[in-house]
Amino acid sequence: MSDLPLYADAGARALVILHERHLREFLATWTRAKAAGLDLPATDDPSYASLEALLRHVMRAARGYMTWCCEKLDLPDPKIDATPGDDAIEAAASQYLEHVVERWRTPLAGVTEQQTNQVTYAARWGPDYCVDAMLEHAVMHPIRHTYQLEALMAAR
What we know:
Radius of gyration: 16 Å
Order of helices and strands: HHHHEEH
CATH topology: Four Helix Bundle (Hemerythrin (Met), subunit A)
């Protein structure tokens, strides 16, 4: 990430770097969970129906956070491909992750701190977020699921 361009908002740049770091960490943890034969607890939430569904959920969310930021700031579409389905996500995960992080690198480079912090917008799931808060949410999302998988593996 050292070749990530300078941003008008250094905080946004830091969050892009952190998002990539933690998305990679999540995929590594997910791969260990899959190799260990981990079963997720039963739930009605389709995002937790299987390890593949969880992987797709995290990757799809990564796509959604950046597309939301670009929509709200009237920036061009970052052109992040649709997330592969549950049946294809495992085989495509590494390549898709590289695509997502590449598409995350530059859309927000020219956005100012005022643009990321001064206005809030409704998230797709309801509450209002400024772009900075959405980026923080995006960073925490793979961290939370990494923790979840680590805890489930430790409890076995």
